[in-house]
């Protein structure tokens, strides 16, 4: 759902509605089930080792904390250099039916 931002009159805030909150909860449950299944298949130590090696790359997932954002710096002559930098990492990329990402790559 989209609502007005109480701090900035011309801004909008997007929030999850009831259906979105249910989907988010289902996502977290599915993630937990996948990790538990991997721990059964590959051992708990292996899965925790993988998590420990990946978490420093993502950290909090914010532009100031995540080293992954350093790889997202646009070329100065490209159109992306003119677009505001995102504040968080995407949770999942959207792949279109054409097989490419939304920007056409």
Gyration radius over CA? 18 Å
Strand percentage lies at 5-15%
Provide the low-confidence segments as ranges. none
Order of helices and strands: EEHH
Strand order of the largest sheet: 1-2
Helicity, as a percent range: 25-40%
The number of E-state strands comes to: 2
By helix and strand content, what is the structural category? mainly alpha
Backbone shape: extended
Average of per-residue pLDDT values: 82
The largest sheet is: 2 strands, antiparallel
**Number of DSSP helices?**
2
End-to-end Cα distance, whole Å, is 30 Å
Question: What attributes characterize this protein structure?
Answer:
extended, 2 strands, 2 helices, two-stranded antiparallel ribbon, mainly alpha, 105 residues
How would you describe this structure to a colleague?
The chain has about 100 residues and is mainly alpha-helical. The chain contains two helices and two strands, in the order ββαα. Strands 1-2 form a two-stranded antiparallel ribbon. Helix 1 crosses helix 2. The protein starts with a strand and ends in a 47-residue tail after the last helix. The mean pLDDT is about 80.
